[in-house]
Amino acid sequence: MMRPRSHSASSLGPLLLTLLLAAGAETASAQLQPAPRPAATPTTTPCDPHFSNPQFRRLEAHTISGTRYALAWIAQPEVRVSEFFSLEVAVCAAAGQPQARTLRVEATMPEHQHGMNYRASVRPRGPGRFVAEGMLLHMPGRWQFSFEINVGAQREVLTGDLQVD
């Protein structure tokens, strides 16, 4: 069972609102939170977190905002201790910002000062879309996901916590 924990971040204003509304969220809070996916046909805005696999539309997406980027991610299958899973990630750029070229995903346990025993393999799935495979959280507790968004020489790191029981 997974429970997202609140995480404060900078707001992207209208961009985040568009992302959250497209994800079916009922609030425009700049916190990591589940956002139920509606059964409706996804929109075609640049920050629509439309995931490639149709079954993902029934799952909850988690959102994180930064100063230049926002992202939404979903895990498949559900995150469980010592079981492999993958993350499908949609990265959205604020107005005037270039699209993400690469993404690096890591997970650490801040209280224990260690990370995963496996390194995730991240590959692109189209503009602003990525999949991170081979993820495994080997202990229960609070994990912090770190998403490093790279755009040439620039980068932004977005983080969010996930409680895994």
What this model shows, in words?
This protein is mostly beta strands and 165 residues long. The N terminus is likely disordered.
Question: How would you describe this structure in keywords?
Answer:
165 residues; mainly beta; 5-stranded antiparallel sheet
Total helical segments: 1
Extended strand count: 11
Mean pLDDT: 74
Record the strand order, biggest sheet: 2-3-4-5-9-8
Distance between the termini: 6 Å
Main structural class: mainly beta
Overall helicity: under 10%
Order of helices and strands: EHEEEEEEEEEE
Low-pLDDT regions: 1-46
Radius of gyration: 15 Å
Which outline best applies?
globular
- Main sheet, how many strands, which sense, barrel? 6 strands, antiparallel
Strand content: 35-45%
Short description:
By secondary structure, this protein is mainly β. It is about 5% helix and about 45% strand. A hairpin with a 3-residue loop joins strand 3 and strand 4.
